[in-house]
Structures are given as C-alpha cells and as structure tokens.
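Q: Could you fold this chain for me?
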Amino acid sequence: MPFALCALVIATLAADSPSPATNAQNLPVLHLKTARPVGSEARVKCDVVLAADPGAASRPADALSGVVKFHGASSQGYEKKSYALALDESARWLGMRKSSHWVLNAAFVDRSLMRHKLAYDLYRSLAREGAPRRASASRFIELQLNADYRGVYLLMERLDRSLLELHRHDSNATAHACMYKAVDHAANFSQPGHAGYEQRAHDGLLVPYWKPMDEFNGFVSRAPDAEFFHPETGIASRLDLGNAMDFHLLVLLTSNIDGITKNFILYRDAPSPAEPRPRFRFSPWDYDATFGRSWEASRVGHTEWLSNHLFNRLLGNREYARRFAARWRELREREFSTASIARMIDDNAATLGDAVHRNAARWKSQSHAYPNRLTFAEDLREMKAWIHARSEWLNSEIARRTGVQ
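A: Sure. Below is the predicted structure, expressed as structure tokens.
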C-alpha cells in the first residue's frame, strides 16, 4: 500500500489489532503510523489521526501527514520514548493553539504523569493583563504507534516563537527577537558570554545571534551594584522583573533542581513601537524533576534553596526583596495555595481515569526500578504531602532571606 494511503486505514488498523487502549478509553487517542522505525536523528515520515472522542469513528479527512523523531536527551534511554512531531499542515488540537509542531511527552519516570502539566499550568495561571506568563499548554492523550498501544502521553505545545509571541525575523533590521535555551549548569549568569546556552532559531534567523545574550550576561556578571540597580539603565530596563520573580518562585515551589541553572528559555522580542527597548523574560521547560522527585526519580527533601547569580543579586536589593516576599505571600493565598494545587492534582487524576492503569500495565520497566515500586495513588499522596511541607518551609525561608516577616 502506498504510504500516502496509510492514514486512510489507521483507525481500521487500530481496531483490528488487540490493544489495552481499546478497552473503555477515556482520553483522546493519537494514532501514529510510520513507514519505518522512529529514531533520534533523521525524521521519519508519518501519518496521524487524533481521535478527540475515542468512541467515534475517524474519517479519512481527519488524517494529517508529517514527520516524527525521538524527543529529549537523557530520556531517550528509557523504554518509553518521547516524540517530536512536525505536521505538514497546522492543526488546532484539543483547544490548544494552532500549530504544526507538537511534543509527545512520555513522562516515563513520573508515575503521576502530571508534573510537567502541573508546573506549566501553574505558571500560565499567573498571567495578568499586560503581564503574560508563557509556558506550553498540554493535554493528556493515549498513543497508538503503528497500532501498538504506547500508553499515556502529554501532548504539548512546542515552546517556540509563536508561543512566545515574538515578532518574525526582519532581515533589514539591526536587532531581532531571540530565544536561548539553558542546556547545562554554566547558564548561571555568573560569567560573560553564552556558555551553557543554545540559540533557538526561528523563521529566517538561522545565523548565530549572540549579541543580546552576551550583553545581558556581561552586565549581570560584572556591573557594579550602583550600575546594576540604576533606575533608568539598570537591570529593570533589561529584564522583566515581574516575570523573573514569578519564574523564580515557580522553581522554588516545585524545587526544580535542574531548572535554576539549566532547562529554561530566556527570550527577548525585537524592538517595536510598543516596546522600543525589549526586555528579557523567562519561560519554564522540563519539569519532571519536581514536586519531591529528582531527574532519575529518587526522592528529594523539601528544604533546599535554589538560586543563581542573577537572582542572588536581585534579592540583595532591599526593594526587590520586599516585592519578592510580598509576591510569595500573595501567591500562597491564591494560585500557590496547597488547597489550589491539590485541586489541580485531583482534576488531572480524574481526567486520566483508568488510563493510568493501562499505562502502568504497558510500561513495567525491565531495566529501571522506578516507577514500578510506586503506584499512581501513592505518588499523588506523596506529592501533596511534599507540597505542604515545601510551602511551609518556604514561608519561613523567604521571610528569613528577605528580612520581611
């Protein structure tokens, strides 16, 4: 059968093949058909159908074509792989933004399956008029790869120019929008240059463009305090302090050990009439090592303070420290309250439903002790207890570090 016709029979192939996912499905199902095995380097052609209602029959018109490959770095060593999907045509899936680029996050070492979603949804919930907090939207799905049930995945928006609402590249301009991903712990703002970062290209900006990053790192690492906190030309003119504050508080709340000096996006728009002097902002990424678990899923305590050179300098300023403490108290009464986060966890658990059991049955790890030793219900109970303990500790620790009771 020609490859282009594969999508026309995806639903039939899935129906004809025995699969745990065909029994009492409650989540949308992504049917992915490839011509050859998926790998980590070359992209493989694929056809895809997203069945938002698992009980409804898919139509040929539902099929989309594209390419797929493995996604992630260390996570590629796990049996359950994550995938990067690039469609030939943009799709608006499950109420998220219209896009041709999607991530299928396996969350293999996360028994709760929700740590990424919980963190990104928390950050997005902090947005206010004129103060966006940009992070990937996501939805739980189940995946069928070549009619083989692959378990529960988190279908995520790709963190790119469109999501960050950056201006398109203008080859005639002298300054451009830019995105940098912190990829190792050298991205701690303590030295000039751009060590620890990768440039994320978009549109026509395919050449190295490190000037904004180098200038920012040089200023943060070397400027004297009088220059650093100058009211007109200091850090507030170069960095969105409200954004940075909320990002730091998210890292602290979740105890994202890897998220303070790597695994984040630092971005800046191009100059425009609305913002002639654009400032840098943060966007979170990679939050599986959070809420009481490390990157390899071992337990972590609730009393570790997380910071870097930039945030240390900011907290050394009395006015910023006062605002930081006030923002923490404000969020603890609302979005960061233990009751609010517990409701989010329970809502996610209700959405996942019986799919968590199908996923657990499909992925009984052969080479990794975790997550077999922990049930879904146990992980949720431990998460809630850890969040309560972490929040109580942060109450006192932030007060101690800022001098604001």
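A (continued): DSSP finds eleven helices and eleven strands in the chain.
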